[in-house]
UniProtKB/TrEMBL annotation:
Cross-referenced SUPFAM superfamilies: (Trans)glycosidases
Pfam families, alphabetized: Glyco_hydro_79C
Protein name: Beta-glucuronidase C-terminal domain-containing protein
Residue span, Beta-glucuronidase C-terminal domain: 250-355
Length: 361
């Protein structure tokens, strides 16, 4: 409504312009000639922003209400250079946010090699977004991931369900979101679409696709509980111990005080021909004197990495039949702290994640 402009986050002008010269296929397209590039996109984008701001009543006189540079995942950065195209788009001061899409791998990929691999996630995200984030920080423009999923389908490929609904896929979702925070990414919007295998839930039953809550939903819940609502929240990645290269940790601070620790064990374990699930002891030391305990919540599934069912967060399990209501119960455990260290044993198993919340006096 025209009198409700404050409810508007941003207007996105165009979507994935890097594909305009390629799709759709003849005789219907493509949408733009093969020569179409950054300068053409910038001119059209700026023209559209000008027209909207002049002709739409609620936007008259408004600046910085538009989301720009919404590129495809895997965009050719050499062609669509952020600095170059920005010079054309930013002249009118219309840009509120900048967005890019991100799918880490393809639907035929290996869960173990492509998603349960923190170093690949870090490398891929840095390669895709590092330059843009550094440049936009100087402009004080938020960078967001406006469409995110673990894997996109490709031709002649039967999608690997482990990439989407498994515990391993859930751990990737958690790792991606927490790492995105450390990079300075302002917001992550996980792609949700009916009948899409990368969606966290299927809201309705359609032919061949039953209503369902999928495993990667739990990664979103974990990240939300890690951020919580304390305000003035910052995230810091912790160094990886060479003795436990699969353990990835993040520290969360509210107003400079340590309030959360997220610990992920990205070791691939599926319980097949195995003598037991590997475990690593968690040790904390030199905690603030007013921390009296640590509340431990666990993201896990009995079958490990490939488990598609029985994934639980703090003992809770969501289902397609509960109407979106949060399940009752919580099996989080409070471990006391004495002299700045844990007074009880805390272990993390392979293919699990722990949220440690500091309890203060």
């Amino acid at each position: 409504m025209p009198d409700q402009i404050q409810q508007l986050d941003a207007i996105e002008i165009g979507n994935e312009p890097d594909l305009y010269p390629l799709f759709p296929q003849p005789p219907c397209g493509p949408d733009r000639p093969s020569s179409y590039g950054p300068a053409d996109c910038a001119a059209q984008w700026t023209g559209a922003a000008n027209n909207l701001s002049k002709q739409v009543g609620a936007l008259k006189g408004q600046k910085a209400w538009y989301q720009a540079l919404t590129f495809l995942s895997g965009v050719n950065q050499k062609i669509w250079n952020v600095t170059g195209i920005w010079n054309g788009i930013d002249e009118g001061g219309f840009v509120k946010t900048v967005s890019q899409h991100y799918y880490q791998t393809n639907a035929c990929a290996s869960l173990k090699d492509q998603l349960m691999n923190h170093s690949i996630t870090v490398s891929e995200m840095q390669s895709a977004f590092g330059t843009a984030i550094s440049f936009l920080k100087m402009k004080r423009i938020p960078f967001i991931l406006g469409e995110v999923g673990s894997a996109l389908g490709i031709d002649n490929c039967t999608p690997n369900p482990e990439l989407y609904g498994s515990l391993g896929g859930t751990l990737w979702t958690t790792d991606l979101m927490l790492h995105a925070m450390t990079m300075g990414i302002n917001r992550v919007s996980m792609q949700q679409a009916t009948n899409a295998n990368f969606s966290a839930w299927q809201p309705v039953t359609t032919p061949g696709v039953p209503k369902a809550v999928r495993g990667n939903w739990y990664g979103i819940v974990f990240a939300a509980d890690f951020i919580a609502s304390g305000g003035n929240f910052q995230v810091q990645p912790l160094p990886i111990n060479a003795s436990h290269p699969n353990i990835v940790s993040y520290a969360g601070y509210n107003s400079g005080l340590l309030t959360k620790l997220a610990v992920l064990d990205m070791e691939f374990w599926n319980g097949v021909n195995d003598t037991g699930r590997p475990a690593v002891d968690i040790e904390l030391a030199d905690l603030d004197a007013n921390i009296t305990g640590v509340r431990v919540s666990r993201l896990t599934a009995p079958g490990g990495s490939k488990e598609l069912e029985n994934i639980k967060w703090a003992g809770r399990q969501w289902s397609a039949d509960n109407g979106g209501q949060e399940p009752k119960g919580n099996n989080s455990v409070l471990v006391k702290v004495a002299n700045g260290s844990l007074a009880g044993n805390v272990t993390i198993l392979a293919s699990q994640a722990l949220l440690l919340e500091m309890v203060r006096v």
